[in-house]
Amino acid sequence: MATMHDNQLLDNGQGVIDPDTYFLRNNPPSNLAEFEAKTSEFVQYHKERNTPVVLITSGGTIVPLENQTVRFIDNFSAGTRGSVSAEKFLENGYAVIFMHRQFSLQPYSRHYTHSTNCFLDYMTLTEDGKIEVDAKYAAAMATTLAKYQKARSNNMLLLQDFVTLSDYLFKLKSGTRIMATLGRSAMYYLAAAVSDFFIPTEKMAEHKIQSRDGALTLTLDQVPKFLKPLVSVWASNGLIVSFKLETDEKLLVPKARQALEKYGHQIVVGNMLTTRKKTVTFITQDSERIVSLSQEELDNDVEIESKIISELLKYHRAWISHGTLEGQ
């Protein structure tokens, strides 16, 4: 329960509560202890083997409108960037903690769960009642299945999920603090689409909002800026990569630089809504670099994440060696 001191933390002069107050005023998810136990075991396993580990956050957070949630605010993120990136990191020897929105895209299964075909279209039923993979899909599915089984059997992929904004924030805090024991061998790849606004528990309706009451007016509070304690306290030695999505090209680099200056992390990957699958911009304190797919690469179904991860591996090697991005 919040104390009088906690109430004094509510407003930073701009009407935004601070992260400490948020955690005091909201209940942790019921499975947080299980999340922490699995994450700790995974991190310790790879710490003993000197394996670099990346925490990938992926998909969108929901903002409930009622404590007994029926209605909520969501966003369009399906988790494409995060799930593709997880596969690319695994291919390059990284252990991956994939913290994703429940039912969003996941590495490897993404090729079939969210395709234009129903997953049943990939299978056939033989005359004796056995199920087989359709021959025209078999080779590709076998390759994907082999990669997935290798990652899981070698304990290189840990799948952890979240649903609400509160789930995400509590697990982000716990996960990054656990990973901090890896020092500079840890990378934090913050690709989740996190809500900027929420309704505090104490302001939320307890039961389903009734339509008979007429038009609905909502007042949402601004979500605290959690990147600042993540950078300075929870994961101070790791390489931290955030993402910036804009629709106005003139704002992309200036807002990315504002974020770097405000929060003190190392890299922002900027992308425009309409071109996010073929062009990104890497912004650091000292540099700015545009990476794009060629038309030939687009025609051959190359995914931009392969280039994103290739660039980040260079940055991370320099970070591990020198604690700086220079020399990547």
Structure report:
The chain is α/β, with parallel strands linked by helices and 328 residues long. The protein has one domain (4-237): CoaB-like (Rossmann fold, 3-Layer(aba) Sandwich), CATH 3.40.50. The chain is 38% helix and 19% strand. The chain has 11 helices and 14 strands. The protein has helices spanning 4-8, 19-25, 32-48, 80-91, 110-113, 135-153, 165-179, 227-234, 249-263, 295-299, 304-322; strands at residues 53-58, 63-64, 72-73, 95-101, 123-125, 131-133, 157-162, 186-190, 197-198, 221-222, 239-246, 267-272, 279-283, 288-292. The chain has an 8-stranded mixed sheet with strand order 7-4-1-8-11-12-13-14, sandwiched between helices. It has a two-stranded antiparallel sheet with strand order 2-3. A two-stranded antiparallel ribbon has the order 5-6. Strand 12 and strand 13 form a beta hairpin. It is globular and about 60 Å long. The protein starts with a helix and ends in a 6-residue tail after the last helix. 34% of the residues are buried.
- Annotated CATH topology: Rossmann fold
CATH homologous superfamily label: CoaB-like
Q: How many β-strand stretches? A: 14
Cα-based radius of gyration, to the nearest Å? 21 Å
Order of helices and strands: HHHEEEHEHEEHEHEEEHEHEEEHH
Q: What's the shape?
A: globular
Termini Cα gap: 48 Å
Helix content: 25-40%
CATH class category label? Alpha Beta
Number of spatially distinct domains: 1
The CATH architecture is: 3-Layer(aba) Sandwich
Strand order of the largest sheet: 7-4-1-8-11-12-13-14
Quick check: average pLDDT? Answer: 93
Main β-sheet: number of strands, strand sense, barrel status? 8 strands, mixed
Give start-end ranges of low-pLDDT stretches: 1-14
